[in-house]
Design a protein that fits this description.
The complex is a heterotrimer of chains A (97), B (220) and C (960). Chain B is α+β, with helices and mostly antiparallel strands. Chain B folds into two domains: 12-51 and 129-215, 2-Layer Sandwich (Gyrase A, domain 2), CATH 3.30.1360.120; 55-128, Aminomethyltransferase beta-barrel domains (Alpha-Beta Plaits). Chain B has helices at 15-20, 62-68, 107-115, 127-130, 141-146, 195-206; strands spanning 24-28, 31-36, 44-48, 55-58, 79-82, 88-93, 96-100, 123-125, 131-137, 163-168, 171-177, 185-191, 211-214. With 960 residues, chain C is of the alpha+beta class. Classes of the chains: A mainly beta (97), B alpha+beta (220), C alpha+beta (960). Chains in contact: A-B, A-C, B-C. Chains B and C meet through helix 4 and helix 6 of B and strand 8 and helix 20 of C.
């Protein structure tokens, strides 16, 4: 079995990980439905280096992997904080609901 | 009168197995713990520590608070530190720790710690219920674990106090190399609902090493 | 039985321990240390198998099982290579691939029709008409005489184990031993893998010099040191069947598969002897020189009386010397080369007066009694001429040393590049994969000294994590491969692939048919697809394919080499199955109460209590409606949502609104995914402004938890999400007498209707056990869902059962719960919804708060709701006497249209007629509307839409 490096737990068998899809930034909450449909349904399907979500199941830890899917090599893995640094707020937060 | 698990509200997740194996029990705080079995202690022993207190804390201020209470907090994630009385603090991440008492020691201390968890960024994790706690003890422990787990647990790679959050017999398990005593040991913390299955799978894997259940009074 | 050669011949035999087994019903003697094959050869039995197409007689060729000529049948297992089956007292062995007996195979006549069995015969003959193969297959299989599987074989314990090392060395010949010692001497934790029972590989039997002394001396010194080395673990009788990602080696030994994770791998697997290709080259008695040397040195077998040694390098002379030493008359050394070159062994052969025929070619072999009886040789360039004259040399043994191919499986598995080289005249490793080193003859022909030097260098480099280097062929001075050891014959039967009985013409014809690459030739002709996987066929197939294509063979590749390198048993792959089972803490109580258990995900749950499903479910439903029942709901998922942003997080994850949910109140939860489809439901209890406890479905909780973590990894709200499913047990006590029972226990909670009304939640103690109690109504009665620490749950269950005894409390199972909830019209996610159901379709629009700016799935839901509704979930009833009932997923039909399907259906013991939920046309959902369901066998069943809940429509009972 192949190994992958988890930023929290180190090298582990692939069997301990769950794939979570491409890393794509969701549209604004009030964006056009077309934009949302694109985000929900369309994958870039890049041949080359892709940025993916991976989940280490035994520790319930999400992280991001940069993987060359042509050579099938994981180049780098890192915590999601590297990309998601800011708290996300929705402008018209329904304070009363 | 002999102490039996069903005498207490709190029972080991695997107590029917312990009774089948002929265990003698003793009262520890609020539950019955298997102390010895009707055979000589095996070279590779499996100890059920599930009825003992233990707790977890989680949250943005969890580690800071724990240190402030005077508990040793390891420098790095997936490292354990031991307390003066032989208990352990397992640091599972930047905001989470698991606290174990010494198998024959400071259960009350951990119990007290658990009662004082304040909330507000320092949240209680019910680890005594979520996780069964076994100790696999003996020289053959590494070889036996290799039948169940894909992580390299040889001492050079996985020294005392090292933690692996991994899969053991396909069950998510926290493995921690024991920090006390001369005999190598692995603490195994895994889903309590799967405890009976896990106990059986471990004993099966231990067979070729003449392994068997071990009572807490048989730990030297 | 023939006499065995005296010691020191037969180094593996324990002559103190004779044994007897049977082969084809005949008693065969041997010694401990023998294989089935060597013991048979010890009594002169070369005929050990049959080819599977023409049923030609076959004997061992390489003597290490690299060919598959001697597959035998053991009582419990077919297709065992006789060369690797240890002879055991009392073992029963039979041959395979015959009809009648191995000696007298009635199907040998098949060969006479060989011109009809042209290449690709099966593909073409059974291509049309459709079904013809299905008809003929059984006859063909029977005629082939394949081994048989004993389906009564007892289960054998096999398991798997991981192992770890810094350096793994595969092969323990001179190169492998040198590598292992060098690596271990550098301090690396080293594993040495050898498939034979003893270390040393060729050092045990190969004659490296005229005297035959260098091999044994070197072996004695190095093997002993390796066995004792503190940093070397030796795996003997271990097959390395594959190399997988990041140097994971699969090792099969005994009843175990070891998955060895190695920092570096040194491949020192040596070579596989190759046959020469000539008419009748497959006869028993024609064997690889190395194999014959093993037979004599390790098994003490005198392999024949009169031998001819065919060779194209110095090794064949070494074989001739060994044979002469063992008392075998060497009739001739037949050298394919023009000149024999300088080799001390060749000089020694001449000194002994053995006839040497240089520049020779082989016309054909002569068969007598299913064994080789002679060889016709001639000048090499005349050998292929039709009816070539030549010299017949009488013999009963032909040894072949015309070349070898490196055992490159592991290198190929790892992605190394291997192709034909005109320098070595063979397949050659061109590029090494990362993390892998090579040493010795696997890297191309080499001398003993080169093997040692390369082994040491590779071992040191592997231990240091340094770069791997490929040896330079020119500096290695090894036994050369003949570039074209192939002699076509007018009558064919020059076999390239012994497994599949493929000849030169078969391969040339495949190319003529247009299969112009080795991969295509392989698939059409099946070359290399038999049990030996081309180990003794690939090189010659590559040569002939290139020749037929008129292309240079330089750079040509053999077909792709994939794991496993040798057949693996399913038992080894399966090992011990790990399928964790989750038991609730009350499991023992359910079993004691006679429950029939069912699997729910990884959990075991009581389906109903008792044997008879119908009666049990009816009784259990009645108990809940009229009295009091108890159900174990420990399998429900549980999550803690805590932190200053807890309510914000709840609002984003679930469709409802939670900001105004009061503390100590529960609220329904509905979760949609990115597409706005329903994925989970549950109940939340708010314990504090910053603390929600939420339940999730048994099957959904893991993905709900994962999804929550994923979203918050992006939102970065101040909230902690904890999955506490395993920590909390759940017991639901329901029925008109529920309060009476619960109030009998010691408690600090006021259970009175006024203090603790419907939908409220409390935490406190019950019978000294900490509890969280939710007044929720999945079954629609006065009820309490009690959550308590799982370690105390059995005690609480016992106390509740005790307290309820005077009321006749009835535990109820999943089946009764399904009926009860259906009577209340409550949906089950995943049963009454599918992956595309949105809340409006499920008639759950009331659970969606649309004034929130966002929740997961909201944008999609808005888009979908702007489209017309295509289906809607409704309740329906059937006439009381409907029989048989329609089933879940039966279709709702309107004229010629499918408008929906049944999602749930049960006979209601409370209402005394069948009720259900179904998706129907959203235009016809008025209660009272009739519609049709297509039941089993196509019968149309008339149903009537009615409003849900079916029972107690105003929900008065749960509010008591």
């Amino acid at each position: 079995m192949k190994l992958m490096h988890c930023p929290l737990n180190g090298w582990r068998n692939f069997g301990e990980f769950v794939y979570g899809g491409e890393v794509t930034l969701p549209p604004a909450h009030d964006a056009d439905p077309k934009e949302w449909a694109d985000w929900v349904f369309m994958e870039d399907n890049t041949a080359g280096v892709v940025r993916e979500w991976w989940f280490h199941s035994p520790s319930s830890y999400w992280f991001i992997a940069e993987r060359d899917n042509v050579r099938d090599v994981v180049l780098r893995t890192y915590p999601p904080e590297e990309i998601f640094q800011e708290r996300v707020d929705f402008s018209s937060e329904g304070a009363s609901q | 009168m002999a102490v039996t698990p069903e005498h207490f509200n709190r029972r080991s997740f695997i107590y029917p197995r312990l009774i089948e194996a002929g265990a003698e029990f003793a009262e520890v705080i609020d539950a019955a713990v298997a102390t010895r079995y009707p055979h000589d202690a095996p070279a590779l022993g499996l100890v059920d520590l599930s009825p003992l207190p233990r707790t977890g804390i989680k949250g943005p201020r969890a580690l800071e608070w724990l240190a402030a209470q005077g508990w040793p907090v390891p420098e790095d994630n997936n490292q354990a530190a031991h307390t003066e009385s032989g208990g352990m603090v397992l640091r599972l991440g930047n905001r989470e720790a698991f606290v174990l008492p010494a198998p024959r020691g400071d259960g009350e201390t951990v119990h007290t710690l658990e009662q004082s968890i304040p909330g507000d960024g320092v949240w209680h994790m019910p680890r005594r219920d979520s996780h069964a706690w076994f100790l696999l003890r003996g020289e053959a422990g590494v070889d036996c674990m290799a039948k169940l787990c894909g992580v390299d647990l040889r001492e050079a790679q996985f020294p005392r106090g090292a933690i692996a959050q991994t899969s053991v017999a396909r069950l998510n398990t926290i493995v921690c190399r024991d920090m006390a005593g001369a005999t190598p040991g692995f603490h195994l913390l895994a889903d309590s609902a799967s405890a009976i299955w896990f106990w059986d799978a471990l004993l099966d894997a231990m067979q070729e090493f003449d392994g068997g259940p071990l009572g807490i009074h048989e730990i030297d | 039985m023939n006499e065995r050669l005296p010691a020191p011949w037969g180094s593996l035999l324990d002559r103190e321990q004779p044994l007897t087994f049977t082969f084809e019903g005949e008693r065969v003697g041997g010694y401990v240390g023998d294989t089935v094959s060597s013991a048979l050869l010890g009594r002169g039995t070369w005929l050990q198998g049959r080819s599977f197409k023409y049923h030609r007689p076959r004997g061992p060729f390489t003597l290490v099982g690299d060919d598959a000529s001697c597959l035998v049948q053991l009582p419990e297992e077919p297709n065992c290579p006789a060369e690797h089956i240890a002879a055991e007292e009392g073992l029963t062995v039979k041959g395979q691939h015959y009809s009648g007996s191995l000696k007298r195979d009635r199907a040998r006549f098949m060969e006479k029709f060989s011109r009809f069995f042209f290449v690709g015969f099966y593909y073409r003959a059974f291509y049309r008409p459709r079904g013809i193969w299905d008809y003929w297959e059984k006859f063909i299989r029977r005629a082939a005489g394949l081994g048989s599987v004993n389906t009564n074989t007892a289960h054998r314990y096999r398991d798997k184990q991981y192992a770890f090392c810094d350096v793994a060395v595969v092969g323990s010949g001179a190169a492998g031993l040198s590598a292992a010692l060098a690596a271990a001497d550098s301090g690396a934790d080293t594993v040495l893998i050898e498939r034979e029972p003893v270390l040393g590989g060729g050092l045990n039997y190969h004659r490296f010099d005229a005297e035959g002394s260098s091999g044994p001396a070197l072996r004695a010194e190095m093997a002993e040191r390796a066995e004792r080395h503190e940093h070397i673990r030796v795996y003997r009788e271990t097959q390395c069947t594959g190399r997988f990602g990041e140097n994971l080696l699969a090792l099969v030994h005994g009843n175990r598969m070891t998955k060895l994770r190695a920092g570096r791998v040194v491949v020192a697997t040596g070579v596989i002897s190759q046959p020469a290709v000539f008419h009748y080259n497959d006869l028993p008695g024609i064997a690889a020189g190395s194999g014959v040397q093993r037979l004599m040195r390790q098994y003490g077998v005198k392999p024949g009386r009169r031998a001819v040694c065919v060779t194209a390098n110095g090794d064949g002379y070494g074989v001739a010397l060994d044979l002469a030493d063992a008392g075998v008359e060497v009739a001739a050394v037949v050298d394919l080369r023009e000149r024999s070159g300088s080799d001390a062994r060749a000089d020694a052969v001449r000194e002994r007066g053995i006839a040497v025929h240089p520049d020779s070619g082989i016309v054909h072999a002569i068969e007598r009694d299913q064994h080789v009886a002679g060889l016709r040789i001639t000048r090499r360039r005349q050998a292929e001429r039709s009816g070539a004259p030549g010299t017949d040399i009488e013999c009963d043994l032909v040894t072949v040393d015309v070349g070898a191919t490196p055992a490159i499986s592991l290198i190929a598995h790892a992605g190394g590049d291997v192709s034909y080289s005109n320098e070595t005249h063979g397949l050659t490793v061109r590029e090494l994969p990362p993390g892998m080193h090579v040493a010795g003859s696997v890297a191309g022909p080499c001398s003993l000294r080169a093997a040692q030097a390369e082994g040491e260098a590779a071992g040191r480099a592997a231990a240091a994590g340094g770069p791997a280097a490929l040896p330079v062929p020119a500096e290695r001075d090894g036994p050369c491969n003949d570039p074209w050891p192939i002699f076509a014959h007018p009558k064919g039967k020059e076999f390239i692939d012994f497994d599949e009985d493929l000849t030169i013409a078969d391969l040339r014809n495949a190319v003529r048919e247009g299969f112009d690459s080795i991969e295509l030739v392989k698939r059409f002709s099946t070359v290399g697809m038999g049990p030996s996987q081309g180990r003794t066929a690939a090189v010659n197939a590559v040569r002939i394919t290139a020749d037929q294509l008129g292309e240079t063979v330089e750079g040509a590749r053999a077909s792709t080499n994939r794991p496993p390198a040798i057949p693996e048993r399913f038992g080894h792959l399966a090992g011990r199955g790990f399928d964790p089972v989750r038991y609730t803490p009350m499991h023992q109580r359910h079993v004691e109460a006679g429950a029939t258990m069912m699997v729910a995900g990884a959990w075991m749950r009581p389906a109903y209590y008792g044997r008879d499903r119908g009666t049990a479910v009816r009784e259990e439903v009645r108990a809940v409606r009229e009295n009091v029942g108890l159900i174990d709901v420990t399998t429900l998922g549980g999550l803690e949502i805590r932190g200053s942003d807890a309510v914000e997080f709840m609002n984003r994850m679930y469709t409802f609104a939670y900001r105004k949910q009061p503390v100590n109140r529960s609220r329904y939860l509905l979760m949609t995914d990115d597409t706005g489809s329903i994925v989970d439901d549950g109940v939340s209890a708010r314990w504090a402004d910053d603390h929600f406890y939420v339940t999730a479905t048994t099957g959904g909780v893991d993905s709900v938890y994962r999804r929550m973590l994923w979203w918050n990894a992006q939102w970065r709200l101040d909230v902690d999400i904890a999955n506490v499913t395993g920590a909390w047990a759940g017991i639901n006590i329901a029925g008109p007498n529920a309060r009476a029972v619960i109030e009998k226990l010691d408690t600090d909670i006021d259970f009175s209707a006024e203090a603790f009304p419907y939908i409220e939640a409390r935490s406190g103690h019950l019978a000294d056990i900490p509890v969280r109690v939710l007044r929720v109504g999945f079954v629609g009665e006065l009820g309490y869902e009690i959550h308590c620490p799982i370690g105390c749950a059995e005690a609480l269950w016992d106390r509740l059962m005790e307290a309820g005894r005077e009321h006749g409390i009835q535990p109820f199972g999943v089946e009764a719960q399904r009926v009860l909830r259906l009577e209340k019209g409550h949906i089950i996610i995943g049963q009454d919804t599918d992956n595309l159901t949105h809340p409006e379709e499920a008639a759950m629009g009331w659970a969606v708060q649309r004034k929130k700016p966002f929740f997961v799935g909201f944008p999609a839901l808005k888009a979908r709701e702007s489209q017309p509704l295509t289906r809607r979930l409704v309740g329906f009833r059937l006439p009381a006497d409907t029989d048989p009932l329609p089933e879940e997923c039966h279709l709702v039909i309107d004229g010629d249209r499918i408008t929906g399907r049944v999602t749930s259906i049960e006979y209601s013991p409370t209402l005394n007629y069948p009720i259900g939920l179904a998706f129907v046309d959203p235009g016809h959902t008025e209660p009272g509307t009739p519609f049709s369901i297509k039941g089993s066998g196509g019968t149309m069943i008339e149903a009537e839409i009615c409003s849900a809940p079916f029972f107690d429509p105003d929900n008065e009972r749960q509010n008591l």
